[in-house]
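Lecture notes, unit on protein representations.

Consider one protein chain, 372 amino acids long.
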Amino acid sequence: MEPFKNRYNQASIAELSKALESSTKNFDAARFLDLALRQLHTLEMKERVNQITEALHAALDSSYQVSLEALVAVIKSSTNPEGLTGFILWPIANYIEVYGRNSRHLSFQGIFLVTKQFTGEFAIRPFIEDDPEDTMKTLLEWSLDPCEHVRRLSSEGARPNLPWGKKVRWLNQNPDRLIAILERLRHDSSLYVRKSVANHLNDISRIDPSLLIKTLRAWDKDPGIHGLWIKRHALRSLLKQGHCDALSLMGFASETQISIHDLNLSSHQVPIGGELELSFALKNEGSQAANLMVDYIIGFRKANGSLSDKVFKLKTVQLKANTLVRIRKKISLKPVTTRTLYAGIHEVKIQVNGKVKAQVDFLLTGSQSSKD
């Protein structure tokens, strides 16, 4: 799969330049292309976005208002069906984020238009930082917009821990102020919007777990057809931690009479890039059926020799009294971009309803090549 950064290439940048030449006379295309394409191949994705943004600013010899009008004019719309869409609009959103903070409501109009064809979730965050009350009022209005992309923005743009997004202290200090937007969106017909609601709630769980639990308990009185899905995804971090209230909300008891038998790995030594098969039996020793959430945890070795646990979902099962179920799972130990693998002893733990029940170790050998 080609890296996302390659979406910003000579062809896409030339397309943006051509569109701007058609939308305004105050655009120096030659200067823009010269600045935007400089050493482009050496830059990562956000660096490319920033460079294109700076090139736009240099090539648009006008006031912010006039420049913004030219920029939004190139976006695909009912009046411009051949306009631009997708990732090439990120530099326009970034332009608003960088240069539009002194023209709030004009910038809001630009973010609104960009969002319909890409996203303004990053661009809105400096405005929350500057004036949270005014910006939250706008986001609350957008939560009722007919366009699903705009509705999603009202949640995604205000997430306390938005990936790649600017950290906004006010959001982390006032998570209770975010619930009103999520309340409007929790029954949304769009999965795209509901995913944002669930991710937003999961962010809140890391700041104020009691607020999340209180909110979901209230929503349980009117769950709608999507309530269980949102609750499960919103609670995922707390469930992995074995949070008692989170387990209870999902119908799992924090205390169980579960035992683990025949815990085994297909090999206790495996090279980086290899694979293991985990197998074990789960037995309900109790006198009543039990709802079980079964996870496995890998204790990955870090560069300093310590272990860092990563929880992986395995299975949910209702196990009748005094019965047993066997579980198998293949575990890939191929390098991934988010984790560097180091040789040494690693741990595999079995967790049931948030509590570790058994553990087995294995030796990871070899080294991760630089190209990985």
